[in-house]
């Protein structure tokens, strides 16, 4: 029997109550939100439950929502896959903008190690308990996190560009 989204939702609500919410079906991906303090428990449950069997972490990434209230300025998104049933789910946890941090899942999925490092590198989200949270793609000397919305899109001091080639000026005839 195929794993149905209603079965996933019912098991999660029965186990975690109101800590899991905002269930939605987006094309072929079932998505929901989880309170940040419950994320490791929920992911461990999804992996170890004999019916659900979400054994594969496809992706983990961050999102910055600077216009949201401070408690929901950042989100960490997890994509899990059940290969037995070919079922995919997306989990989103919102975290505080003043102190963006969430527990690591590198002890549940070893593959999350580099994904969490990349998310910290680009968004500055601290993964509590991560074994070696350091920059992975940017220079160690860098003091900012370039995927945050407040990061400038380009260097305003550059003199080697001609704006006409980037569609930023119009020629009046």
Automatic annotation (TrEMBL):
Membrane topology, from the record: Peripheral membrane protein
Key words, A-Z: Cell membrane, Membrane, NAD, Quinone, Translocase, Transport
PROSITE patterns for this protein: COMPLEX1_30K
Chief location of this protein within or outside the cell: membrane
Compartments, as annotated in UniProt: Cell membrane
Residue ranges occupied by any NADH:ubiquinone oxidoreductase 30kDa subunit domain in the UniProt entry: 33-155
A Gene Ontology molecular function term of the record: NADH dehydrogenase (ubiquinone) activity
InterPro entries linked to this entry: NADH_DH_suC (IPR010218), NADH_quin_OxRdtase_su_C/D-like (IPR037232), NADH_UbQ_OxRdtase_30kDa_su (IPR001268), NADH_UbQ_OxRdtase_CS (IPR020396)
Family affiliation: Belongs to the complex I 30 kDa subunit family.
Role description: NDH-1 shuttles electrons from NADH, via FMN and iron-sulfur (Fe-S) centers, to quinones in the respiratory chain. The immediate electron acceptor for the enzyme in this species is believed to be a menaquinone. Couples the redox reaction to proton translocation (for every two electrons transferred, four hydrogen ions are translocated across the cytoplasmic membrane), and thus conserves the redox energy in a proton gradient.
Subunit composition and interactions: NDH-1 is composed of 14 different subunits. Subunits NuoB, C, D, E, F, and G constitute the peripheral sector of the complex.
Name of the protein this chain belongs to: NADH-quinone oxidoreductase subunit C
Species of provenance: Flavobacterium restrictum
Organismal lineage: Bacteria, Pseudomonadati, Bacteroidota, Flavobacteriia, Flavobacteriales
């Amino acid at each position: 029997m195929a794993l149905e989204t209603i079965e996933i939702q019912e098991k999660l609500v029965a186990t975690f109550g109101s800590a899991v919410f905002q269930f939605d079906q987006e094309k072929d991906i079932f998505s929901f939100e989880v309170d940040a303090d419950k994320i490791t428990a929920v992911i461990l449950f999804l992996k170890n439950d004999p019916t659900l069997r979400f054994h594969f972490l496809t992706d983990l990434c961050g999102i910055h929502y600077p216009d949201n209230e401070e408690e929901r300025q950042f989100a960490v998104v997890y994509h899990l896959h059940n290969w037995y049933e070919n079922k995919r789910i997306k989990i989103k946890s919102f975290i505080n903008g003043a102190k963006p941090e969430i527990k690591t899942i590198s002890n549940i999925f070893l593959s999350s190690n580099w994904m969490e490092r990349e998310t910290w590198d680009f968004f500055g989200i601290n993964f509590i308990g991560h074994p070696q949270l350091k920059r992975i793609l940017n220079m160690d000397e860098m003091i900012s996190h370039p995927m945050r919305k407040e990061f400038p899109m380009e260097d305003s001091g550059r003199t080697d560009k001609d704006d006409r080639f980037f569609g930023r000026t119009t020629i009046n005839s």
